[in-house]
Amino acid sequence: MFFHVFFLLFLLFLLDVKSGSYTVLQVVEALGSSIENPEPRTRARGIQLLSQVLLQCQSLLLEKEVVHLILFYENRLKDHHLVIPSVLQGLRALSLCVALPPGLAVSVLKAIFQEVHVQSLPQVDRHTVYSIITNFMQTREEELKGLGADFTFGFIQVMDGEKDPRNLLVAFRIVHDLISRDYSLGPFVEELFEVTSCYFPIDFTPVSSPFYSFIHLFASVLPSLPQFLLPLLIEKVDSEILSAKLDSLQTLNACCAVYGQKELKDFLPSLWASIRREVFQTASERVEADGLAALHSLTACLSRSVLRADAEDLLDSFLSNILQDCRHHLCEPDMKLVWPSAKLLQAAAGASARACDHITSNVLPLLLEQFRKHSQSNQRRTILEMILGFLKLHQKWSYEDKDERPLNGFKDQLCSLVFMALTDPNTQLQLVGIRTLAVLGAQNCAEVCVSDPLWLTPSQGCLGPSCVPSDSEIMSPGLLSGELDLAKGDEPTKCSRHLRCLQALSAVSTHPSIVRETLPLLLHMIAGTSEVIAICQSLQQVAEKCQRDPESCWYFHQTAIPCLLALAVQASIVLLEDEVLAAMVSVIGTATTHLSPDLAAQSVARIVPLFLDGDISFLPENSFPCRFQPFQVRVCVSSCITWSGFVCCPSCPSSSTAAAKCFAGLLNKLPAGTEMRLGGGSLPESITDEILEVQPYLMGLLSDPELGPAAADGFSLLMSDCTDVLTRAGHAEVRIMFRQRFFTDNVPALVKGFHAASQDVKPNYLKGLSHVLNRLPKPVLLPELPTLLSLLLEALSCSDCVVQLSTLSCLQPLLLEAPQVMSLHVDTLVTKFLNLSSSPSMAVRIAALQCMHALTRLPTPVLLPYKPQVIRALAKPLDDKKRLVRKEAVSARGEWFLLGSPGS
Amino acid sequence: MVGGGGMGGGLLENANPLIYERSGERPVTAGEEDEQVPDSIDAREIFDLIRSINDPEHPLTLEELNVVDQVRVQVSDPESTVAVAFTPTIPHCSMATLIGLSIKVKLLRSLPQRFKMDVHITPGTHASEHAVNKQLADKERVAAALENTHLLEVVNQCLSARS
Fold first, then answer.
1. In A547-684, which ranges are continuous DSSP H helix?
2. Which residue, A776, A809, A841, sits at the end of a domain?
């Protein structure tokens, strides 16, 4: 009841004061009885009411009124403790007041500092005190500064012991302003630091302002007092608590951004000692990372500092300190401290070009010497990896003058070291060597290596891909001259080296200008050697690299394809091995797949006559002993594959159709029985146009007892995703839903064929069917399931493992997706699956047990009669000799146990 | 036979247990994929069987609570013996018998019949260790316990795959 009256009074006063019909002093008089009431609670309410009104109307107050009110409130601060919160609210309202005459702010603060023991107030009231101080600091800075160090001292007393994070946020702000706005701290600097730093490290992040974390606030307060902060940080880094270590290292890191040499000077040795100890001893990667980061920023800070003419440059002595403590560890590549030392040195060296020079000029000679001293590959690898780390750091700094590069002096030594690494039998060491060489190359230090042909053989593997064109241009002349010499020598001892040369040639062919040099070389070699396959592989690599660049792509096509076709035609006449043909064919395929349509059309226009009419006029060296007859058996096969590249490549309709026709013609002429597998291999590529011609052909073969199984496998190929040629990348036209179309076109025929076929060829149809169904998206299959299911179950009894596996993997998802249909056949399914769970093939056993598991998805009442029998039968595969089978048996049996059991 | 039958709705005995990392799936080796090479049943395989059993109290597995651990599984395939020691999270855990029973049932369902299995509490980790061990070793009592619908329900819940 009382509060209602109170609230109404408040509104009333507010309206009156705002409208001007009452002055604030009249309100005070009206409230007189309650303000002067002997009962402190009533007094508190009266004052609270007044404070609320003031808060609302502070902008309307006149200077005279403010003086009276302040006097009144200051006086009330001496009142009973229950009254104090209301008084503080009033003072806060007055502190916002513009009309506050000079001098009063100081007197209010003095009164508060003197009369109120802030830390015994509740959180809200403490917050009010901080607000009063903040308000005054914003508007009356000059007056407060007049108060001198007393203000700082008063604030320290107010803040000392603060526990609430919300208040701390405000308090830290005040500290920050005290320092940054140059308030007089007097003798209280240390107190101020201590009263703040005792909160370090803070693990609290304010919810309201996620972008402003406490630690940042903290980091912005403390750095202004380096003489106190740095010892504190060192002490905290030395503490046992992980979070304290991390926070102090991070704070140190942040401080280095604002500090200079002057602030750090006295603490450098202790800071280094602490960081070194942490990196050497810690088990935590975060401490190590933060320690290294701190060292990095310390060094960066020292490198950055502007020095007075007479001042000593601390960077050098600091770095010498680091070197002194770390270098002896580098000489023990087997010991634990070698990597921490290297990391410390690298962290420091990464901070500035000067630091980098200083450290590498000391460390590199040492490491080079160590490399020679240690003969074991592992130790050498560690040393080389360290060298690599230092070399990489040099990439960060650009040197304008070539002669000033600090690595120049070590170039020869480094190169010979890399050479030793590359020729070492240890592959790990070789790899590091190659990476080092790449880094050296990027810094133009590798001229020495390329001039020596011996170098290149082991190095190309990684070098080629990592080279930017400019680098490869530098290297290629050297490379080529070296390669040529080697390529000419054909002694057997040089054979493997020769092969690597070929790889090298293809690996460096990254740029059109280089391709123009390497390709003729390769083609020149292909004509006369027995290593056609190896050269073809190299050509293939070049072709792959050319794909990115249309210019080289066309050049390759112009130069290489006629040459290869000529060879292929020649080969068809002199009957070379199949492998050679296959290798050539894949080169042609790769080269063709990425041609642009108009280029492909030109190409096709020249090649079609070759195959159809035997027109060999565009081939180089076209003096063949006899006529090219493309429809001979062997040639047929190879040309089939050749064409497959063309068929799916061009998006130009006319050439595509021509090629397709040609291919279809070839396919039809394939003598049945001889090369069915190869024919099948190229089938998927031809799906777009001549699938209609292929299907009946394959279908007819199914009834052939000899070829049937192979033909059935052909279905699998047709339905599968072909990764090599038939991809969108090879601009093949992959029609959406071709599997569905294939299904609707062919499955009825397959089913019909099955029923009509004689007993011995029936499995072929089942196999084909199960291949088709296996690859088919399940939603398409589900409506047809009832009619096909009996055939699938029949396929389970087929003795061919592949058919069993294919059928099981087809049935398993069906059990999950169509349990109702499947439950009609539960008897057959249980029996067949259990039978297959003891098949000799592990894959079949696993698939059968997975199906047994999937069976539990069927409606429980259907399964329950089989439960005892299944559980008994599944005990056997629990003891299977293969672990993978046992695993499936365990999960299947476990599920069967849970069937119809409570709690499942 | 289970002492702490009143688990429904009561306060958790150990409301805030320490949680351990789950070990990953066992990597498949080339030997395991070879049809000819027999793989013997080893400790890891037994551990894989029991590590995913759910705790009756917490939505956690026995592995995550470190109730079972691979080093406390002893197995000999040629002698057909398995010994599993499990560690209740607290010494007065009334669920100890139930956990032991779940492990026992899981092994009974998953191991070939030739195996003789021994499930017991890690020595010195439970107040009534001997009483619990005795109950778990008694075949008839285990069989009788599984006839109890309520108990079977709880055990099945522990053994169900987590959804």
1. 550-574, 578-593, 597-613, 633-648, 653-669, 676-682
2. A776
Distance CA A72, CA A575 (A): 118
Residues A296, A418 within the same domain:
no
A11 Cβ contact partners less than 8 Å away, ≥ 6 residues apart? none
**pLDDT for the residue A450:** 43
Q: Which two tokens stand for residue A195?
A: 């009263």
B33 and A881 within 8 Å at the Cβ level: the answer is: no
Instruction: Judge whether A204 lies within some domain.
Output: no
- Return the number of other C-beta atoms located less than 10 Å from residue A555's C-beta: 16
Query: Which candidate from A881, A882, A904 shows the least CB-CB separation from B160?
Result: A904
Cα–Cα separations (whole angstroms), residue B110 to A798, A857, A889, A895, B117? 30, 20, 8, 11, 12
Q: Does residue A485 sit in the same domain as residue A624?
A: yes
User: Which among A471, A408, A407, A466 has a CA at the least distance from the CA of A435?
Assistant: A466
Which of A875, A887, A902 is facing B153, going by the closest CB pair? A902
Two tokens, residue B129: 């260790």
pLDDT on residue A19: 67
| A506 and A573 co-located in one domain | yes
Residue A733 three-state SS: coil
H-state helical runs in A209-352: 214-221, 226-237, 242-256, 261-264, 268-281, 285-304, 314-330, 338-349
Cβ <8 Å between B160 and A903:
yes
- The domains located in chain B, with CATH, are 43-159 (3.30.300.130)
A263/A271 Cα distance (integer angstroms): 12
A872 at B interface, C-beta within 8 A = no
Tabulate helix, strand, coil % of chain A (nearest 5): 75, 0, 25
Co-location of A294 and A359 in the same domain: no
Residue A307 scores a pLDDT above 70:
no
Provide the shortest C-alpha distance from residue B152 to chain A (in Å): 7
Question: Hey, is the C-beta of B43 within 8 angstroms of any chain A C-beta?
Answer: no
Decide if B112 touches A, using CB distance below 8 A: yes
**How distant is the Cα of A898 from the closest Cα of chain B, in angstroms?**
7
Q: Do both A370 and A515 map to the same domain?
A: no
Residues in chain B: 163
Residue A815 belongs to domain with CATH number: 1.25.10.10
| Identity of the residue in B28, B112, B156 whose CB atom sits nearest the CB atom of A904 | B156
Q: Are A867 and A855 in contact (CB under 8 A)?
A: no
The residue range of the domain holding A881 is 784-903
Q: Are residues A829 and A873 in the same domain?
A: yes
Does residue A395 share a domain with residue A327? Answer: yes
Residues A32-79: pLDDT tens digits? 777 778 888 888 888 888 888 888 887 878 888 888 888 888 888 888
In-domain check, residue A889: yes
Report CB contact under 8 Å: A878, B38.
no
Q: How far apart are CA A446 and CA A156, in angstroms?
A: 64
- A485 close to A441: Cβ distance less than 8 angstroms: no
- In angstroms, what CA-CA distances link A435 with A115, A225, A445? 73, 46, 14
Quote the CA–CA distance of A629 and A615 in Å, as a whole number.
10
Domain contains A206: no
Do the domain assignments include residue A417? yes
Q: State both tokens at A677.
A: 């597998």
Whether A144 contacts A174, CB under 8 Å: no
Amino acid at A453: P
Same domain for A389 and A300, yes or no, is no
Region A706-725: what's the mean pLDDT? Answer: 47
* Residue B19, number of CB atoms within 10 A of its CB: 12
Q: What is the pLDDT of residue A694?
A: 43
> Is any Cβ of chain B less than 8 angstroms from the Cβ of A841?
yes
Order the strands of the B116-121 sheet from edge to edge. Answer: B73-76, B81-86, B116-121
